[in-house]
Amino acid sequence: MDGLARKQMGAGLLFRDRAGRVLLVEPSYKPNWEIPGGAVEADEAPWAAAARELREELGLERPPGRLLVVDHVRAEDSRPEGMRFVFDGGMLTDAEVTGMAVPNEEILSASFHTLDEARAKVTPLLADRIEAAVWACEMGATALCEQGRA
Protein backbone atom coordinates (compact mmCIF):
# COMPACT_ATOMS: atom_id res chain seq x y z
CA MET A 1 0.00 0.00 0.00
CA ASP A 2 2.94 2.38 0.56
CA GLY A 3 3.47 2.85 -3.18
CA LEU A 4 -0.14 3.74 -3.98
CA ALA A 5 -0.93 7.34 -4.86
CA ARG A 6 -2.89 9.36 -2.32
CA LYS A 7 -5.25 12.19 -3.23
CA GLN A 8 -6.79 14.84 -1.03
CA MET A 9 -10.57 15.10 -1.43
CA GLY A 10 -13.00 17.95 -0.93
CA ALA A 11 -16.77 18.20 -1.29
CA GLY A 12 -19.02 21.19 -1.67
CA LEU A 13 -22.58 22.18 -2.48
CA LEU A 14 -23.97 24.45 -5.16
CA PHE A 15 -26.94 26.42 -3.86
CA ARG A 16 -28.77 28.83 -6.14
CA ASP A 17 -31.65 31.25 -5.87
CA ARG A 18 -34.47 31.83 -8.35
CA ALA A 19 -32.39 34.50 -10.13
CA GLY A 20 -29.63 31.94 -10.80
CA ARG A 21 -27.17 33.46 -8.35
CA VAL A 22 -24.90 31.11 -6.38
CA LEU A 23 -24.41 30.98 -2.62
CA LEU A 24 -20.92 31.80 -1.37
CA VAL A 25 -19.59 31.76 2.17
CA GLU A 26 -16.96 34.14 3.53
CA PRO A 27 -14.40 32.22 5.62
CA SER A 28 -12.71 33.95 8.55
CA TYR A 29 -9.37 32.20 7.93
CA LYS A 30 -8.59 33.18 4.30
CA PRO A 31 -9.29 36.01 1.84
CA ASN A 32 -11.16 34.07 -0.86
CA TRP A 33 -14.81 33.12 -0.58
CA GLU A 34 -15.96 29.50 -1.09
CA ILE A 35 -19.03 27.41 -1.76
CA PRO A 36 -20.26 25.61 1.38
CA GLY A 37 -18.14 22.50 1.91
CA GLY A 38 -14.68 21.35 2.86
CA ALA A 39 -12.26 18.48 3.24
CA VAL A 40 -13.38 14.86 3.17
CA GLU A 41 -12.10 13.17 6.32
CA ALA A 42 -10.66 9.63 6.58
CA ASP A 43 -13.27 6.91 6.07
CA GLU A 44 -15.90 9.52 5.06
CA ALA A 45 -17.83 9.54 1.80
CA PRO A 46 -17.75 12.81 -0.18
CA TRP A 47 -21.55 13.26 0.10
CA ALA A 48 -21.36 12.72 3.87
CA ALA A 49 -18.57 15.31 4.07
CA ALA A 50 -20.68 17.83 2.13
CA ALA A 51 -23.61 17.32 4.52
CA ARG A 52 -21.34 17.56 7.59
CA GLU A 53 -19.65 20.73 6.36
CA LEU A 54 -23.03 22.31 5.59
CA ARG A 55 -24.17 21.57 9.14
CA GLU A 56 -20.91 22.89 10.64
CA GLU A 57 -20.67 26.02 8.48
CA LEU A 58 -24.28 27.14 8.14
CA GLY A 59 -26.31 25.06 10.59
CA LEU A 60 -28.38 23.51 7.77
CA GLU A 61 -29.54 19.90 7.77
CA ARG A 62 -30.00 18.97 4.11
CA PRO A 63 -28.91 15.90 2.21
CA PRO A 64 -26.80 16.67 -0.85
CA GLY A 65 -28.54 16.29 -4.19
CA ARG A 66 -27.07 14.72 -7.29
CA LEU A 67 -23.41 14.91 -8.21
CA LEU A 68 -22.70 17.90 -10.47
CA VAL A 69 -18.90 17.98 -10.74
CA VAL A 70 -15.94 15.65 -10.35
CA ASP A 71 -12.77 17.74 -10.65
CA HIS A 72 -9.21 16.43 -10.73
CA VAL A 73 -6.83 19.06 -9.36
CA ARG A 74 -3.10 18.69 -10.02
CA ALA A 75 -0.56 19.22 -7.25
CA GLU A 76 0.63 22.81 -7.15
CA ASP A 77 2.87 24.72 -4.73
CA SER A 78 2.04 23.30 -1.29
CA ARG A 79 -1.33 21.85 -2.38
CA PRO A 80 -1.35 18.08 -3.02
CA GLU A 81 -3.11 16.44 -5.95
CA GLY A 82 -6.78 15.99 -5.24
CA MET A 83 -10.34 15.34 -6.24
CA ARG A 84 -13.16 17.83 -5.68
CA PHE A 85 -16.84 16.93 -5.77
CA VAL A 86 -19.73 19.39 -6.08
CA PHE A 87 -23.27 18.29 -5.26
CA ASP A 88 -26.54 20.06 -5.99
CA GLY A 89 -27.75 21.81 -2.87
CA GLY A 90 -30.95 23.05 -4.48
CA MET A 91 -32.66 26.41 -4.27
CA LEU A 92 -32.61 28.76 -1.31
CA THR A 93 -34.39 32.05 -0.75
CA ASP A 94 -32.79 35.24 0.54
CA ALA A 95 -34.91 34.79 3.69
CA GLU A 96 -33.44 31.30 4.27
CA VAL A 97 -29.91 32.67 3.89
CA THR A 98 -30.63 35.62 6.18
CA GLY A 99 -32.09 33.25 8.77
CA MET A 100 -29.05 30.95 8.83
CA ALA A 101 -27.43 30.64 12.22
CA VAL A 102 -23.71 30.36 11.59
CA PRO A 103 -22.77 27.97 14.42
CA ASN A 104 -19.07 28.86 14.70
CA GLU A 105 -16.54 31.54 13.88
CA GLU A 106 -15.26 29.79 10.74
CA ILE A 107 -17.79 31.56 8.49
CA LEU A 108 -18.31 35.33 8.64
CA SER A 109 -21.21 35.59 6.18
CA ALA A 110 -23.13 33.90 3.39
CA SER A 111 -24.78 35.57 0.40
CA PHE A 112 -25.85 35.08 -3.21
CA HIS A 113 -23.72 36.29 -6.12
CA THR A 114 -23.94 36.31 -9.90
CA LEU A 115 -21.29 34.25 -11.69
CA ASP A 116 -19.35 37.45 -12.50
CA GLU A 117 -19.48 38.57 -8.86
CA ALA A 118 -18.45 35.09 -7.71
CA ARG A 119 -15.46 35.08 -10.07
CA ALA A 120 -14.21 38.25 -8.35
CA LYS A 121 -14.50 36.69 -4.86
CA VAL A 122 -13.24 33.10 -5.32
CA THR A 123 -10.04 31.62 -6.75
CA PRO A 124 -9.94 31.20 -10.54
CA LEU A 125 -9.97 27.41 -10.08
CA LEU A 126 -13.15 27.53 -7.99
CA ALA A 127 -14.76 30.04 -10.36
CA ASP A 128 -14.31 27.56 -13.22
CA ARG A 129 -15.66 24.73 -11.06
CA ILE A 130 -18.73 26.79 -10.10
CA GLU A 131 -19.45 27.55 -13.77
CA ALA A 132 -19.13 23.82 -14.57
CA ALA A 133 -21.51 23.02 -11.71
CA VAL A 134 -24.11 25.56 -12.91
CA TRP A 135 -23.86 24.11 -16.44
CA ALA A 136 -24.24 20.55 -15.10
CA CYS A 137 -27.23 21.58 -13.00
CA GLU A 138 -28.95 23.20 -15.98
CA MET A 139 -28.14 20.32 -18.37
CA GLY A 140 -29.01 17.49 -15.96
CA ALA A 141 -25.45 16.22 -16.39
CA THR A 142 -22.29 15.61 -14.38
CA ALA A 143 -19.23 17.61 -15.46
CA LEU A 144 -15.91 15.78 -15.45
CA CYS A 145 -13.28 18.46 -14.99
CA GLU A 146 -9.53 18.91 -14.79
CA GLN A 147 -8.42 22.05 -12.98
CA GLY A 148 -12.05 23.22 -12.88
CA ARG A 149 -12.65 22.96 -16.62
CA ALA A 150 -14.82 20.41 -18.36
Which descriptors apply to this entry?
150 residues; alpha/beta; Nucleoside Triphosphate Pyrophosphohydrolase; 5-stranded mixed sheet; two-stranded antiparallel sheet; 4 helices; 7 strands; 27% helix; globular
Question: Largest beta sheet, briefly?
Answer: 5 strands, mixed
Coarse structural class: alpha/beta
CATH fold call: Nucleoside Triphosphate Pyrophosphohydrolase
Write out the strand line-up for the largest beta sheet, numbering strands in chain order: 3-1-5-4-7
Order of helices and strands: EEEHEEHEHHE
What is the beta-strand fraction? 25-35%
Q: Can you count the beta strands?
A: 7
Low-pLDDT runs of 5+ residues are: none
Distance between the termini: 31 Å
The number of helical segments is 4
Helicity, in percent? 25-40%
What does this structure look like?
This protein has 150 residues and is of the alpha/beta class. The chain has a single domain (8-146), classed as Nucleoside Triphosphate Pyrophosphohydrolase. The chain is 27% helix and 31% strand. The chain has helices at 46-58, 94-98, 115-121, 124-139; strands at 8-16, 22-27, 37-39, 67-73, 82-91, 107-113, 143-146. The protein has a five-stranded mixed sheet with strand order 3-1-5-4-7, sandwiched between helices. A two-stranded antiparallel sheet has the order 2-6. The N and C termini lie far apart (31 Å). 35% of the residues are buried. The mean pLDDT is 93.
